[in-house]
Amino acid sequence: MFNLLIVEDNLYYSKNLINFILRNNFNIKLVGIATNGKEALKYLISKEYNIDIILLDLKLPYYTGIELIEKLKNQLLYRYENSIIVVSGESYFISIIKKESFIYLYIDKMKGFQEISNKLNDLVKLKLKENAKDSLRKRILAELKYLNYNENFVGTQYLLEAILILAENNNLDAINLKRDIFPIIALRHKKTSHNIKCNINNATTIMNCDCQKNIIMKYFNFSNTKTEVKPKQVIETILKKIIA
Questions:
Q1: Residue 175: is its pLDDT beyond 80?
Q2: What is the DSSP string of 21-56?
Q3: Which of 46, 172, 208, 209 is the least crowded, having the fewest Cβ atoms under 10 Å away?
Q4: How confident is the model at residue 4 (pLDDT cuts 50, 70, 90)?
Q5: Positive or negative CA dihedral for 146, 148, 153, 154?
Q6: Which pLDDT does position 5 carry in this prediction?
Q7: Is pLDDT above 60 for 171?
Q8: Which fold does the domain 147-243 belong to in CATH?
Q9: Could you say which of 2.60.40.10, 3.40.50.20, 3.40.50.2300, 3.40.50.300 is the CATH number of the domain covering 2-130?
């Protein structure tokens, strides 16, 4: 279930919208209605409500919707990025808000409840996908930590990304890191593929020194304590563990 906050000063509109949403959006739980920006900020600052999605009007008492978004940025509440659906008739504000990272999309109120419901379902699907990715990332990181990879090394983070990319594609066959994976990571971080490869190799070299030999032997099914693990072996082994 995803916790929903509605920020709307028209209670009659809010009540009708809520009834429609709860009939048509089964992954949504309403946690509150804020009738002004100041009240909404109290909800969003509090950890009690654990809000996932906000339906936000722009024309509000105290803080407007735009001012509320500024408050979220000023207080570094980035957990609400890509979590706000603006539902407003103030379409002339679109140029101001369209580049805001907190906003998933803008919906004109005139399009009706069905459009809001549909877009709300789209955002829920996106968040479900993000949650699954976060869970997968945590599982991969746990495996790397077990092998005594240093989480703070940039090479460890690149290695985690490489495994995550392959895991999301459920691809265990024909792994070509240089051709298929390193360029993707390099583009994300504005580095060269060679830089990505070197950092991953360095992190793995240090892991070979820091990790207990009995753990390495058991994990990779080695018979020789002098055998050094290569990044591709790490990737293939972790993939088999988390996809199996």
A1: no
A2: HHHH-TTEEEEEEESSHHHHHHHHH-SSS---EEEE
A3: 209
A4: very high
A5: negative
A6: 97
A7: no
A8: Arc Repressor Mutant, subunit A (1.10.10)
A9: 3.40.50.2300
